Each structure stands twice: as structure tokens, then as C-alpha cells.
Amino acid sequence: MNGPIEELVEQLTRLPGIGRKSAWRIALHILDTPEDEVAKLSRALDDAKRRIVKCRRCFTYSESELCSICSSATRDNSTICVVEKSSDVFAIEKIGRYRGTYHVLGGVLSPLAGITPDRVRLGELTQRVADEHPAELIIGLGGGAEAETTAAYIARLYRNAGVRITRLARGLPAGMEIEYVDQLTLGQALNERTDIHYGES
Ligand SMILES: [Zn+2]
Q1: CA of 118 to the centre of ligand 1 (A)
Q2: How far is the CA of 38 from the centre of ligand 1 (A)?
Q3: Which of 64, 70, 139, 152 could tie 57 with a disulfide, CB 3.0–4.6 Å?
Q4: How many A from CA of 1 to the centre of ligand 1?
């Protein structure tokens, strides 16, 4: 069995972007940190996990059942931007220009990896399209092949739903995830979005 330091390192290496070397550095830093500071970190982790839920409408992380975007009176409810994950919502919100709502899919389609349409929140999106009759769905996915597959699938899925389907302008770095695209490029991609039609790949 692992000792407490090894266990801490082990848990840290499970975090995205943290290799073994970084995990050791963080673990040793934590050991050098006064106990009350470490308690704050541990409380923050605990609080975030306990108090943050997923918005029941758009599935982004939220402190209440409906997130601040979905419950805002000033957002444009006729536009839904479909993104892969909550961090994409934060990235697009940071630009400060988008006034519509979001829908967090929770993944992109990847038949090879077994990510089929039933594994992401497409059923929930279909329900929203039926209930809310949005005028436009913006496919706000990154530049990879899986994002393309997902965009094409969505365009086909709603081809008769009476909703305009657009995607972020091309020119996003290939394969790059939305959250890592700089604000200027992302803002432009949003402004210059283009229509997608069923059949386009
Ligand atoms: Zn929401």
C-alpha cells in the first residue's frame, strides 16, 4: 500500500496535464505549506464538488438548478451555442460578445472510441429544439475530425427542424479545443460563422 505522499502524488497525476514530475512538485509544495492554507485548498475542492451542479437546461456547471445565463432576462433565448464542455462556455463568455444560450454536449462523437450519439446530450438538445424553437444553433466545437463529425451529424439531425444551423468560421487551429483558442480568434470565428447544410462534411 502507498504511503500518504505516494497516495497524494498518485491522486495528483490523475488531474489533466499533471505528469509524475509535476505531481511530486505539487505534493512537496503542499507539505511545505502551513496547515491552514492546505485546509483552505481542501475546503475549496470539497465546496466546489458539493455546491456546483449542472444546469438542468444547458448542463454547464452552475451554483443553482438554472445557471446564471439560462436564468438571465437579457440573454437571447433564440440562439443556442452547442459546445463540448463547460470550460468552452467560460471561454466564449470571456469574449463578452455572445448573448445567446449554450448547450453542453459533454463530448463529441467518436465512433472509434465508442462515443455514439446516445453518449452525449443530443437527446436533451432535441428536446430543447422541440420545446424552445430556437432560430439558430451555433455549432461551437473545435477544429478536429470528431468535431466535424459531430457538426455534420447535428446538421442532419435537425435538417427539418426549421432551425438555422451555423458553425464557427473555419480558421480555428486544426484540432485545437475551444478553450485554448485566443479570445480574438474565437470572437472572429463567432462573428463570421457560416451556415451548414445537411450533406456537407
Ligand atoms: Zn444553463
Answers
A1: 21
A2: 32
A3: 70
A4: 43
Question: How far is ligand 1, taken at its centre, from the CA of residue 103, in Å?
Answer: 8
Report how far ligand 1's centroid is from the alpha carbon of 125 (Å): 12
DSSP 3-state assignment of 165? strand
Instruction: Output the CA 40–ligand 1 centroid distance in Å.
Output: 28
Domain boundary assignment for the chain: 4-51, 61-195
Compute, in angstroms, the gap from residue 60 CA to the centroid of ligand 1.
6
Residue pair 77/134 in contact (Cβ under 8 Å)? The answer is yes
Q: How far does residue 85's CA lie from ligand 1's centre (Å)?
A: 12
For every one of its 201 residues, what pLDDT tens digit does the chain have, with 9 covering 90 and above?
Answer: 679 999 999 999 999 899 999 999 999 999 999 999 999 999 999 999 999 999 999 999 999 999 999 999 999 999 999 999 999 999 999 999 899 999 999 999 998 889 999 999 999 999 999 999 999 999 999 878 888 899 999 999 999 999 999 988 876 776 678 888 888 888 888 888 888 876 544
The CATH number fitting domain 61-195, selected from 3.40.50.1240, 3.40.50.150, 3.40.1360.10, 3.40.50.720: 3.40.1360.10
DSSP string, 122-161: HHHHHHHHHHH--SEEEE---SSHHHHHHHHHHHHHTTTT
Which residue is associated with the grid cell 467560460? 90
77 Cα: distance to centroid of ligand 1 (angstroms): 11
